[in-house]
Amino acid sequence: MRVLAIRGCNLASIAGDFAIDFETEPLVGSGIFAITGPTGAGKSTLLDAVCLALFNDIPRLRAAPDRSQVGESDTLSAKDTRAILRHGTGEGFAEVDFAMPGGARYRARWSVKRARGRADGRIQNYDHQFTRLDTDARLGGTRTETLAAIRDVIGLSADQFSRAVLLAQGDFEAFIRADANERAVLLERLTGSEIYAKLGQRAWDKATALRSSLDAIRRDIAVQNGLDDEQRADAEVKRDTAVAAEQAVAARLGALNRSNQWELRSAELGIRIETEEQAVADALAAADAAAPRQAALVRDRAALGFAGAWQAVADAERQRNEAGTALQRSEAAVVEAQQAEAAKVAAESEAQALRSATEAQEKQLAPAIAEAHALDLRLTEAAHHSESLDGEARKRAAALADAATHEAEARRTQDAQEAAHASHVTWLAAHAGYQQIAARESELADNVDALTSTERTHAAKADHRKNLAEQQAAALVRWNAAQETLVTWEANHTSASQASNEAEAALPP
Fold it and tell me: Where are the alpha helices (DSSP H) in 155-193?
């Protein structure tokens, strides 16, 4: 990085604003320059401003005691960077502009102030900002994020920056005046390379310990009376042969163990076969005991077919009662129609008598026109009344005809129902015992389910017995083969054991 400008205000011994621009004359044309001045002029404050703006750190304050305090009202720690604010001022800041090798320009600013900007106000927390000048973009948000953004751009921490770029006050003078050994110690402290000296010492100690262990192992090997190459090769061949024989025996032993497991399984299956045979015998005995119940169940199942006929008898009885009620209504309608017909006949007789009387009076009372007119009026009224009676009679005649039709149909229905009822009564009298069967319908259904379940259980146990018999026969065959293999493998095991014993006897003590 290259520092472009340093600015600040009210920092330590420097009162008010100050600015140093390294891009203007005379500094821009100077290859090297020195910062000089009397004690307390603010030379170190300029370097403090750079570290303060970048890292919120002042290297020369690192050696201050932890418990020391600065000020009477604020009681700040001596290591607190806010203590650099000049006494009697309300605010201050440190700002540095710098450029990176890629050409990007940045500005880091650190500022602090007292409450309400007054010199006697309580000091507040500091503010830290980081901006890229060519894009005017602010990098980082909180103080922690801002510090991380500056580290990412520069590539150095505050400790690394103070060692590689900016030496704290007094460190350079101590370096110049020190002898060779002290200068090496100072360089390690300034550059942080003391860790490499420690690593080198640890590597030397570890190498010395490993070298001592190696010498001890070599001495142990030298004092042992080992075999020559030929004897060692012969012993290794015998050892390999014995190991191979041992592995073969182990494999054969595993096969024998599997055969033993097959035999145990065969014995277990035999026990299960006996158990299942007993269960089958028990099932057969239970089936024989249930034979009478099965026969009764077959009869009951056949009787269940007549339950519909029993219900049909009850339905026919109900229909016969309904037909009787309809017949009574039809008979009442016929009586009413007959009464209407009689009223019609009486009305017609009255009208006919009235006409006859009128004609006689017309012949006898021709001169009495007034009385004749009166009789004509009465005759007209009687005629209207007769027509009304005729219409009523026609309606009642139609109702009488409909009633007769309904009566004939009801009689036919009643006759058919009475015939069916008689047939059902006859059948019920002949099969009176089936009524009790109908009452036991639920019990018979349970018996049917029980018998069906027993039959299925019997069939399953018969199949299981057959499978167990087949498994027992197969297990017996495998057992015979395992017995023959066992005899052969025992002979081979004896041979291998002898070879192993011979190889062990040939090995040196």
Answer: 158-164, 171-177, 180-191
The yes-or-no verdict on residue 437 having pLDDT over 60 is: no
**pLDDT tens digits, residue range 381-418?**
655 665 665 666 577 656 666 756 766 676 677 677 66
485-502: pLDDT as tens digits: 666 666 665 666 665 566
Q: Do the Cβ atoms of 50 and 3 come closer than 8 Å?
A: yes
How far is it, in rounded angstroms, from Cα 17 to Cα 32?
A: 25
* pLDDT tens readout for residues 52-98: 999 999 887 777 766 555 555 567 777 888 988 998 899 999 999 99
DSSP element (H, E) containing 7: strand 2-11
Residues 6+ apart with CB under 8 A from 273: 465, 468, 469, 472
Q: Which of 212, 166, 157, 156 is nearest to 190 (CA)?
A: 166
Distance, CA of 381 to CA of 375 (rounded, Å): 10
Residue type, 473: A
Q: Please tell me the predicted confidence (pLDDT) of residue 72.
A: 52
Q: How many CB atoms lie within 10 A of CB 138?
A: 12
Residues 359 and 366: their CA atoms lie apart, in Å, by: 10
Which residues pair with residue 21 across a beta bridge?
Answer: 5
More confident residue, 209 or 354: 209
DSSP designation for 471: H
Q: How far apart are CA 133 and CA 97, in angstroms?
A: 9
pLDDT value at position 114?
A: 92
Q: List Cα–Cα distances, 1 to 34, 93, 110, 191, in angstroms.
A: 19, 22, 19, 18
Residue type, 175: F
**CA–CA distance, 253 with 495 (Å, rounded to integer):** 15
DSSP tag of 225: -
CA-only gyration radius of the chain, Å: 66
Helices within 84-177 (DSSP H only): 143-154, 158-164, 171-177
CB atoms within 10 A of CB 286: 12
Closest CA to 381 of 406, 361, 355: 355
pTM to 2 decimal places = 0.38
| CB contact at 8 A, 162 and 168 | yes
The Cα 171–Cα 189 span in angstroms is 10
Rounded CA-CA distance 322/329 in Å is 11
Q: Which two tokens stand for residue 502?
A: 């011979």
Calculate ∠ Cα 134-94-9, nearest 5°. Answer: 120
N-to-C CA span, the chain: 76
The length of the chain is: 509
Q: Is the pLDDT score of 174 beyond 90?
A: no
Task: Specify whether the CB–CB gap between 482 and 253 falls below 8 A.
Answer: no
